[in-house]
Amino acid sequence: MTVICTLRQFIQERNLTQLKVAQDTGLSPTIIGNLSNNRFSRIDVQTAERLCKYLSCEFGDLFKIQN
Fold it and tell me: Residues of the signal sequence (predicted)?
């Protein structure tokens, strides 16, 4: 099983940029880029919380388990 992040889809659907999300959430552009490209090995709870709040979504909307 693999955990994937759907941040890229949220960004595209809302006509945002990775830089805009980084600036608005206070997260680094590197973190946003890594999540958008599914290059991560762990998920920081505070990072997930900020993104979910910013995107008005639930954790399960942003992170999915793929078989």
Answer: none
Domains (ranges, CATH) in the chain? 2-66 (1.10.260.40)
Separation of alpha carbons 56 and 40, rounded Å:
22
Query: Would you give per-residue pLDDT tens digits along the chain (67 residues)?
Result: 899 999 999 999 999 999 999 999 999 999 999 999 999 999 999 999 999 999 999 999 999 999 8
∠ CA 16-18-24 to the nearest 5 degrees?
75
Rg of the Cα atoms in the chain:
11
